[in-house]
Design a protein that fits this description.
Blueprint lengths: L3 H4 L16 H17 L3 H16 L4 H16 L10 H28 L9 H11 L3 E3 L5 H8 L17 H12 L1 H10 L2 E4 L1
Parallel strand pairs: 1-2
Helix pairs in contact: 2-3, 2-4, 3-4, 4-5, 8-9
Length: 203
């Protein structure tokens, strides 16, 4: 269903959403001009940075904004040169060249901290709850968090059945997923679903 693209748009690369993404066209134009100027002035380092940022954006849409900022900074430096590639006054040139390096360092530090240093040391899956349920103390239908659906199916099916799992777009249609999102934010709808499907657990 093509409507899933509107729901999961942030995970698509920028070129899949070029007609609707706010910065898609500026990104493409800035990238093309920056590449042409980098080749003209033989700036191999800038070319490498542009390729890296473009590759990241192709992989995931949410990186398009920081990539565009980086490419624009490079473009500002390249546009500040005359036909021979001479720079603006040295102090200004140092600031402009230092900004992309600072941004790369800042972004790298953030991701290193978030994914390595600050990484949870314990399993976020409800393993103890699974053991409790498997021991026969409780079973039945489950209204669950979207991200836990597959995990719960693996451990509890068929004695317990989940409301939804990660097969959105394959097994579930768009209206059902939208209804699920509404249910999470509306107690009345949640109560109706609990009664309709004889739900015994909310996980």
């Amino acid at each position: 269903d093509s409507r899933w693209q509107d729901i999961i748009q942030e995970y698509l690369n920028i070129f899949h959403t070029i007609g609707t993404h706010l910065i898609a066209i500026p990104f493409v134009l800035s990238t093309v001009v920056a590449i042409l100027l980098a080749v003209r002035f033989r700036e191999i380092g800038y070319l490498a940075i542009i390729v890296i940022m473009c590759s990241a954006t192709i992989l995931i849409n949410r990186l398009s904004t920081p990539s565009l900022l980086m490419i624009l900074l490079i473009l500002v430096d390249l546009l500040s040169r005359n036909g021979k590639g001479d720079q603006l006054p040295q102090k200004i040139a140092y600031v402009i060249k230092g900004l992309p390096i600072f941004m790369i360092f800042t972004m790298s530090s953030y991701y290193i901290y978030f994914f390595i240093v600050n990484r949870p040391t314990t399993d976020l899956k409800p393993a103890a709850m699974i053991e409790y349920i498997k021991n026969g103390r409780v079973d039945g239908n489950i209204v669950n968090d979207y991200g836990l659906g597959g995990y719960l199916i693996y451990h509890l099916y068929p004695s317990s059945r989940v409301y939804i799992d990660g097969r959105a777009g394959i097994f579930y249609n768009v209206p059902f997923y939208q209804h699920y999102r509404s249910m999470l934010m509306t107690p009345v709808i949640l109560r109706e679903e609990i009664e309709k499907y004889d739900v015994k657990m909310v996980i």
